Amino acid sequence: MVFPQASETLLWTAFARKVEMVEKWMELIERASTRIVGLYSEPGNLAEEVLTKLLGLSCAFWAWDGHQNCDSATYTPLYMREKTLKVMLIVVRALGDSVTTAPSDRRLWQTLRMFLVECLDVIRDFASGPATLTPSNVKFFKDASLSQSIVSVFEIKLHSPYYFDAFLLSGIEAVSQTLCLPMRSKWFFSDLLRLIPDSTRLLFDFYSSPSCLASPDLRRKLLNRVVMNVIPFYRLHPGFCGPLKALPYRLLQYQLRSPDLQDTEVKVINEAQMVISA
Fold first, then answer.
1. Looking at residues 174-189, what average pLDDT do you find?
2. Are 90 and 34 within 8 A, CB to CB?
3. Local structure of 256: helix, strand or coil
4. Which burial class, exposed, middle or buried, applies to 227 when counting CB atoms under 10 A from its CB (0-12, 13-18, 19+)?
5. pTM of the entire structure?
6. Which segments of the chain does DSSP mark as H helices, in order?
């Protein structure tokens, strides 16, 4: 499931039929993940493919949202992006709660763990490193025993800096929100908890630096989402969140430079301050 590349010259509304097809596909994945026992244990690499496709779609919808105002559409890029994250977490829950093995003889939670670790690796490598050209693609499940003919299926193409910025945000949201789920296998992910605060801080630093090529409006959205993402994680895991305490104040400092501070941005800052100060 691939979505057309975001562009200033193309209209979101021109892809209304494609958007509807993607929405129906996600509905199917959501229902199947909650109703079919052992769905991801069947022959093939369905878990790997679905996780990669959903993350790729999330990046695409963020990129479209950064290009155009599509509020008049039936399904806006922001709605589709939120839907994608919701379905991804449903798939994650199905994998994390499963006691069966994948076709490759790995436990399904191990497949999920590979995906989360690779997301964090990319975030930490690129958000903390020197400013370089953004990668053209990100490959997942590189260490898995998979046939070479299907490796390209587990690849997300980053067509522009918009996609790269969106990938980093979608990745940290997927990992941190996964670690907030009450999964049966949650203890196998406990070592990743300590990586979330530092990865989040690195991402905030990147988005607020000249290395991030996003427009001022999109940069504000990205920073806002980073802080929003902190709130549920901090509520559940306050002991790991020392590096996050300054983020609401840093966001406020950044937003005050803007002449048109939005009510929603003030609300996020206030909520984050209340949670972290509690």
1. 93
2. yes
3. coil
4. buried
5. 0.88
6. 16-35, 46-67, 77-97, 108-128, 161-178, 195-207, 216-236, 247-255, 263-277
